[in-house]
Amino acid sequence: AAGLVSAFQSLNHRVLSCRYSTGRGNPRLIYSPVKEEDEWDHPPIIRYHNFLSDKEIETLKRLSRTKVCLRDCVGLGNCYFITDPVVSRISQRIADVTGLDMETAEILQVTNYSIGGHFKPHFDTQMTDVEFGGATVFPNIGVALQPQKGSAVFWYNLLRNGQLDERTLHAACPVVAGSKWVANKWIREQGQEFRRPCALSEWV
């Protein structure tokens, strides 16, 4: 399966770029820009390198271990919802790089996949490197993103006209070796009316 994904991805290769971003002039990022890399262009899928520090990652993992697993995450993985001052700082950082309002966003969700853990296809930050497996795949566009400790990946699930962008259907491949920790921040469209205005055309 991994070979098929790699072959499919190579057929759809794009000439993409990376840069230092200040989040459109955000004061908190002017003197400390983030490393931003285009993983795909249509739809835009962006990876932010070194988004979480090792200390923040260990804090999130420690907090997760003190929580009761609330539900199985559409597959084989344990989910935890975390509230803590470190989460508030991470949420502010997400707001800085995306330009979106976090007031209507959901609580940070931390998920742990052990060997065999996976996430079935669904519409939705990497906290670990994985020895083998665990890629996030977008089957409708042939993209596979390997886990990279400390990085964050961002995309819009909705088009500007409010319709679901089916190109962003994605899933987490099974972990073959090692363990995978992921933190998800679901940002609602409500409250973003002035930050990401709607448009009549679905392709805008």
From TrEMBL:
<dbReference type="InterPro" id="IPR006620">
    <property type="entry name" value="Pro_4_hyd_alph"/>
</dbReference>
<dbReference type="GO" id="GO:0005783">
    <property type="term" value="C:endoplasmic reticulum"/>
</dbReference>
<feature type="domain" description="Fe2OG dioxygenase">
    <location>
        <begin position="104"/>
        <end position="189"/>
    </location>
</feature>
<dbReference type="InterPro" id="IPR045054">
    <property type="entry name" value="P4HA-like"/>
</dbReference>
<dbReference type="Pfam" id="PF13640">
    <property type="entry name" value="2OG-FeII_Oxy_3"/>
</dbReference>
<keyword id="KW-0847">Vitamin C</keyword>
<keyword id="KW-0408">Iron</keyword>
<keyword id="KW-0560">Oxidoreductase</keyword>
<dbReference type="GO" id="GO:0004656">
    <property type="term" value="F:procollagen-proline 4-dioxygenase activity"/>
</dbReference>
<dbReference type="InterPro" id="IPR044862">
    <property type="entry name" value="Pro_4_hyd_alph_FE2OG_OXY"/>
</dbReference>
<keyword id="KW-0479">Metal-binding</keyword>
<dbReference type="GO" id="GO:0031418">
    <property type="term" value="F:L-ascorbic acid binding"/>
</dbReference>
<protein>
    <recommendedName>
        <fullName>Fe2OG dioxygenase domain-containing protein</fullName>
    </recommendedName>
</protein>
<keyword id="KW-0223">Dioxygenase</keyword>
<dbReference type="GO" id="GO:0005506">
    <property type="term" value="F:iron ion binding"/>
</dbReference>
<dbReference type="InterPro" id="IPR005123">
    <property type="entry name" value="Oxoglu/Fe-dep_dioxygenase_dom"/>
</dbReference>
